[in-house]
Design a protein that fits this description.
The longest helix has about 45 residues. By secondary structure, this protein is of the alpha+beta class. It is about 35% helix and about 15% strand. The strands form three sheets. It has a six-stranded antiparallel sheet. β5, α4 and β6 form a beta-alpha-beta unit.
Length: about 450
């Protein structure tokens, strides 16, 4: 009997000891979980510094709109609905409008038809700035471009030994002026943009292999003269535009790369001439007109299909070179969300975005360095720069189950330090990712 009582007492003690251990373990687990949650929340707070960066902005006036790529919910904004200058971020608008209005597989055709005089041929501009005067097989700045020598070969074959005596031109596809009055002349001399005509070769560059090469005041003459030289000696050139004769025999045709490919070149290389030509084609396709004045109506009509609010947009060109353009950051961010989702054929626009620290204008020296270096390869977008502004519209890689689409402008500053602030803000938005709602107070 005493032994039984002792055994019972020992078992009770053991059970109490086990119970205490279980309670301690539960407490430790709960404490650990609480500490883990606190640490996670603290880490998220440390990641989401974009609001603090925006509050401490140093360079120019800040215009900012950042949203969840998944839901479209605004997570950070500062003057986001106020229209402002765009610089080359306008090229995202033009690229998306081109895909919408023209279709990703559309190509531009340059034709030659028989003229009214027996020895005359008419070179009909199809609005293809990539047409190259380099020999076939040699690439200009535009890969997969059509070549004048191919066109000349077709013409000579079609004429079956009858000599060509003169080259005339039909440039009626685009209306003037060829140069926007708000553009600085330095844009031509720096090799940024050409006269916008429906007939040119190599974007009217002096050097077809250099992106930034001097442009002339006679894009049509350069193209017609180069073509005439391929048809034989002493072929006259007349650069006064004449309408191609109705029903005239087609002697040769060449076609551009697809709009999908052209959009990629436009964005990655920030090609002003290609942007302007595409904007003109959009205006024509939308029935808005053939000149700079038609860009507003043409591009806005095309953008409505992506759900972009167009009420605050003022589009005077397609490249963003004009300081007179005005677009709210929120409108660009809405478009960037559609781009990031590859909505309605926008995949080529998404693919053409530069990658932070790697490609295009985001690969330039100094971009995404220092405090923003960890975001290299994790942010994609399109930059914008004018004499008194810097900008970036883009999308981040996924963090915490979400991506951020954003647009940020620093207006009223020529200090290149604004680029570093923009990069730092974009990097902070990438780190936030799915933690972005923490930015909302």
């Amino acid at each position: 009997m005493p032994r039984l009582r002792a055994l019972i007492r020992r078992r009770r003690s053991t059970l109490l000891f086990v119970l205490v251990l279980l309670l301690l373990a539960a407490g430790i687990t709960a404490t650990t979980s609480a500490i883990g949650a606190q640490r996670q929340a603290k880490a998220a707070g440390e990641l989401c510094t974009a609001d603090g960066l925006a509050a401490r902005w140093h360079h120019g006036a800040l215009f900012l709109d950042a949203r969840s790529a998944r839901t479209g919910k605004t997570v950070l904004t500062h003057r986001g609905d106020e229209p402002t200058q765009t610089g080359s971020t306008m090229k995202v608008v033009t690229a998306a409008a081109a895909v919408s209005a023209l279709g990703p597989d559309h190509r531009f055709t340059t034709r030659v038809v028989a003229g009214t005089d027996p020895g005359a041929v008419v070179l009909v501009g199809g609005g293809d700035p990539t047409l190259s005067r380099l020999p076939s097989g040699q690439d200009s700045v535009y890969p997969h471009a059509p070549h004048l020598d191919d066109l000349a070969r077709q013409v000579l074959e079609a004429r079956a030994g009858r000599p060509v005596t003169s080259v005339q031109v039909d440039t009626s596809l685009f209306d003037g002026p060829a140069w926007h009055p708000s553009w600085p002349e330095s844009a031509r001399t720096s090799g940024s943009v050409s006269n916008i005509t429906s007939l040119m070769v190599d974007g009217d560059r002096d050097d077809p292999t250099e992106s930034y090469s001097l442009r002339s005041a006679g894009a049509v003459a350069r193209a017609a003269t180069a073509f005439a030289a391929l048809l034989g000696p002493d072929v006259r050139v007349d650069t006064t535009s004449v309408p191609a004769p109705s029903g005239a025999q087609v002697l040769g045709t060449v076609r551009s790369a697809t709009v999908s490919e052209l959009v990629g070149m436009l964005l990655t290389d920030s090609d002003d001439t290609l942007a302007e030509v595409l904007a003109r084609h959009v205006a024509i396709a939308e029935g808005a007109g053939r000149s700079f004045d038609a860009v507003q109506a043409g591009s806005t009509k095309a953008l409505v299909r992506y759900g972009v609010p167009t009420g605050g947009l003022r589009l005077v060109d397609g490249s963003g070179l004009s300081p007179d353009n005005r677009v709210p950051a929120s409108a660009l961010t809405t478009l960037m969300r559609a781009v990031a989702a590859k909505q309605d054929g926008l995949g080529p626009v998404d693919a053409g975005l530069a990658v932070a620290g790697r490609t295009g204008t985001l690969g330039d020296d100094g971009r995404f360095t220092g405090a923003a270096a960890d975001a290299r390869g994790h942010v994609r977008g399109k930059t914008g720069t004018l004499d008194d502004m810097y900008g970036l519209t883009g999308v981040t890689d996924e963090v915490g189950g979400d991506r951020i689409v954003f647009t940020v402008f620093a207006e009223g500053t020529s200090d290149p330090g604004a680029r570093k602030e923009i990069d730092a803000l974009a990097a902070a938005l990438w780190r936030c990712g799915g933690h972005a709602p923490a930015l909302q107070g």
